[in-house]
Write a structure and sequence with these properties.
Layout (H helix, E strand, L loop, with lengths): L1 E3 L1 H9 L1 H9 L9 E2 H21 L6 H15 L4 E2 L7 H19 L6 E13 L3 E14 L2 E8 L7 H4 L3 H13 L5 E8 L4 E6 L2 H20 L24 H8 L9 H40 L3 E3 L4 E3 L15 H9 L3 H4 L4 H9 L5 H4 L19
Parallel strand pairs: 1-5, 2-3, 6-7
Antiparallel strand pairs: 4-5, 5-6, 7-8, 9-10
Bound molecules: iron/sulfur cluster (SF4).
Length: 393
């Protein structure tokens, strides 16, 4: 039986290529930076987990102690890898925002007697029609009593979301199905999203029948996912948040321009020209010197091989092969008429002759060939290069 997570299915539905990068190719993601919003969410979750964990051990921390705990984990985890996009607000503003969320929550729900916590960051898994399961983690599962359960989820969204939007969040509904399956006495499972920044909650409850229908729809998504053989990109507004944009064929061109940049790109053009001239001189000098040295060494190896009547000379790590071949030369251009006649009479002229492309280009340039007549054979491209010449002083 295969297990899937709602986020796996979410990736597949949003963009098959993104799903492939993440779950099939397992392309490593650059995790060098964490947005401050994620960081804030994690720290607030940790503080609320601490609150209910203490409660499970029979004590409720004072608000000040809980805030101390929060500030401790904030400080302990804060690093220069936390990315803040806002130019207006700094890390401390975000920290205080988290403090406010925790304080409001604490005051709202104190003394936290709304049911018995069964698990914190608890794993749940629901069996779906067919041969698949959907699995995930709930922030807090609560037994209210009398067959009523609640799944609590903490959200640190900066904008308030209402019931209509949370209805679209398949994840918690599938977890509710898991609770029905796991606890046979369950008559009702409420989903509670805590919109912490606004001290509000969104509550939704679905019947088991409704949840099972959602389970069927999810099983169909899984069937499509399992049958998929092609993973095309799906470009959307969400691409801006995609961690694979750099390697996505729909976007990678944007990054290639940057990849071409090198350390010289920042230098003034005049410096670049002088540097290029310097490098060319160095290369010329060193290659002339090298050619001369290599020629002398090759001469010495050939002399040794001829003297010994051998065609291979071994060194410590390499072997030199001395090749002897006869080189045939013919008269230069303009003095080949006799040779051409003989080749034509032998019937091999077509095999040895070829179009002189340099000459053709020159004739084209000089307008001696009608470009309109040979245009269909031409392919044009723009090649760019840099050549240097000395400035007159
Ligand atoms: S950038 Fe967009 S199209 Fe490309 S993989 Fe990511 S989500 Fe898909």
């Amino acid at each position: 039986m295969k297990k899937y997570s709602p986020s796996q299915l979410g990736y597949f539905e949003q963009c098959r290529l993104k799903f492939k990068f993440r779950y099939l190719d397992k392309v490593p993601v650059d995790k060098t930076e964490t947005p401050i919003e994620f960081f804030l969410g994690s720290r607030v979750h940790e503080a609320l987990k601490k609150l209910y964990k203490d409660q499970m051990f029979g004590r409720i921390p004072a608000l000040e102690a809980l805030l101390d705990y929060y500030n401790g984990v904030w400080k302990g985890n804060l690093s220069d890898k936390i990315k803040i996009n806002s130019t207006e607000y700094g890390a401390d503003d975000y920290r205080r925002r988290g403090e406010k969320m925790i304080s409001d929550y604490y005051v709202h729900y104190h003394p936290f007697g709304q049911g018995r916590t069964l698990g914190l960051e608890m794993k749940v898994s629901a069996a779906l029609p067919g041969d698949a399961r959907i699995a995930g983690i709930v922030d807090r599962l609560v037994d209210i009593g009398g067959g009523r359960y609640e799944i609590h989820d903490y959200k640190t969204y900066a904008t308030l979301k209402g019931a209509a939007e949370m209805e679209k969040d398949r994840q918690l509904f599938l977890y509710a199905l898991a609770v029905f399956q796991q606890f046979p006495d369950a008559k009702r499972v409420d989903l509670v999203w805590h919109m912490l920044a606004f001290d509000r909650e969104v509550r939704i409850s679905k019947s088991l029948g409704e949840l099972e229908k959602m389970g069927e729809a999810t099983a169909q998504v899984i069937a499509v996912l399992e049958a998929a053989r092609e993973y095309p990109p799906h470009v959307s507004a969400l691409c801006g948040y995609c961690e694979y944009q750099r390697i996505c064929p729909s976007w990678s061109h944007l990054f290639k321009v940057k990849a071409l940049e090198n350390e010289w790109m920042k230098e003034p053009a005049a410096v670049l020209v002088e540097k290029l001239s310097e490098l060319k001189d160095e290369k010329k000098k060193s290659s002339e010197k090298m050619d001369e040295e290599m020629g002398k060494v090759e001469e010495a190896i050939i002399a040794f091989a001829l003297d010994k009547g051998i065609d291979r000379v071994s060194g410590k790590s390499h072997i030199a092969r001395v090749k002897s071949e006869e080189v045939v030369s013919f008269p230069p251009k303009g003095a080949r008429q006799g040779l051409v006649e003989v080749l034509k009479s032998e019937g091999v002229w077509d095999d040895v002759s070829d179009l002189d492309m340099f000459a053709l280009r020159r004739l084209l340039k000089e307008g001696k060939v009608d470009e309109g007549k040979i245009g269909e054979f031409e392919t044009k491209e723009t090649r760019r290069s840099v050549s240097l010449s000395k400035l007159k002083s």
